[in-house]
Amino acid sequence: MSLLSPFAREPDFRHGSAPKIAVLYCNLGTPDEPTSAAVRRYLAQFLSDQRVVELPRWIWRLILHGIVLRVRPSRSARKYAGIWTADGSPLRVWTEKQSKMLMGWLGERGHYVSTRYAMRYGQPSIASQLDALKAEGATRILILPAYPQYSASTTASIVDAVGAWARQVRNLPELRFCRGYHDDPAYIEALASRVSAYWRSNGPPNQLLMSFHGMPRRALTQGDPYHCECQKTARLLAQRLGLRPEQFKLTFQSRFGWGRWLEPYTEATLHALGKAGTGRVDLFCPGFSADCLETLEEINIEGRRTFLSAGGKEFHYIPCLNDSSEWISALCDVALTHLQGWPTRTPPNPQSLTESRERALSMGA
Questions:
Q1: Each residue of 41-72: b (16+ CB within 10 Å) or e?
Q2: So what's the pLDDT on residue 265?
Q3: pLDDT by residue (tens digit) across 203-253?
Q4: Do the strands 207-213 and 174-177 form a parallel or antiparallel pair, or are they unpaired?
């Protein structure tokens, strides 16, 4: 971007280049490392998003910078350190792998589509990955969220980030957005396959908990469809598994702040089940496409402790979809649904590219 223009400099135009189609797979984000400084940078960006915290901006800035960013980073850093891997943040590792596998599966089905992944908060950013796709010649880009259930605080925030990038771009690619896929048959099948495979190896539980990320209850009363979409996902999954109503529960985790959030709460439910002497609880997180802090630490460590210390006998955490073949196949199905009408099956033709370039040059280009 120059001082004379509000728009970023465009990549050099290459006459005769074949139009490219791409998918940008977007997840929430993660700190760069499990340190207080890195977590503070991440939280500052995340919690400054008005889609995430809808309080009046001036009031929230006082709370965020006066309290939250002084106390929370060190606590969260210790939690991140407990789940960090040799390859880095689990969320980033799984998201990157899913993106690469998606491109491979699309290719196996005969579609010439490139993929990249981006994080709404942290790195690689949505803007930087869109810039990279444009530099590679992408003229049509599908924005595919890693969130099956739509929420203004997640899916719509991705759209905001893409819009902010677009406002600085002169030559915009054609853009499409996937809103969600909470009831997509392939997604439900991938969830059921994950749970069924676990039960084949470990036997069934007394109770299955399906824990989704929480959100303030006022979002439901103001028209956000997230709660209803979580309910439908849970119902369809239970039907696919052949569960009776008393064999499973839907709960919500990851509360933040002092207000009322969607209920029932996962932690309170685990405590109640433990206190009732439940023999075995299995917990699965259908709304998380990849294991992360909220599943590996909040559920598999803290949730386990809550259940067992309350008197529960056996706690099992069923891993997220991660890199399961059923999940990548489902993700491929979702992408192809939204790519319809774009020439994804047309490979670059060297001869036609040469002819196109020669025609352009003959006309003075």
A1: bbbebbbbeebbbeeeeeebeeebeeebbeeb
A2: 97
A3: 999 999 999 999 999 999 999 999 999 999 999 999 999 999 999 999 999
A4: unpaired
* CA separation for the pair 195, 206 (Å, rounded): 14
Tokens of 19: 């139009």
**How far is it, in rounded angstroms, from Cα 17 to Cα 13?**
9
Return d(Cα 174, Cα 322) in angstroms, integer: 29
Instruction: Give the span between the Cα atoms of 259 and 263, in whole angstroms.
Output: 12
Q: In what order do the strands lie in the sheet with 113-121?
A: 113-121, 20-29, 138-145, 174-177
CA distances from 171 to 127, 224, 356 (A): 14, 33, 20
d(CA 36, CA 53): 22
Which amino acid, residue 190? A
Asked if 194 and 284 touch (Cβ cutoff 8 Å), the reply is yes
User: How do 248-253 and 280-284 pair as beta strands?
Assistant: unpaired
Q: What is the DSSP letter of 204?
A: -
Cβ partners under 8 Å of residue 274, min gap 6:
281, 306, 307, 308, 309, 310, 311, 312
Task: Give φ, ψ of 309 to 5 degrees.
Answer: -70, -20
**CA distances for 274 relative to 201, 206, 248, 254, 268, angstroms:** 24, 12, 15, 19, 10
If you write DSSP's letter for every residue of 265-325 in order, what string do you get?
Answer: BHHHHHHHHHHTT-SEEEEE-TT-SS--HHHHTIIIIIIHHHHHHTT-SEEEEPP-STT-H
Question: Please, are residues 214 and 287 in contact by the beta-carbon 8 Å criterion?
Answer: no
Crossing angle of the two packed helices 36-47 and 69-83, in degrees rounded to 10: 120
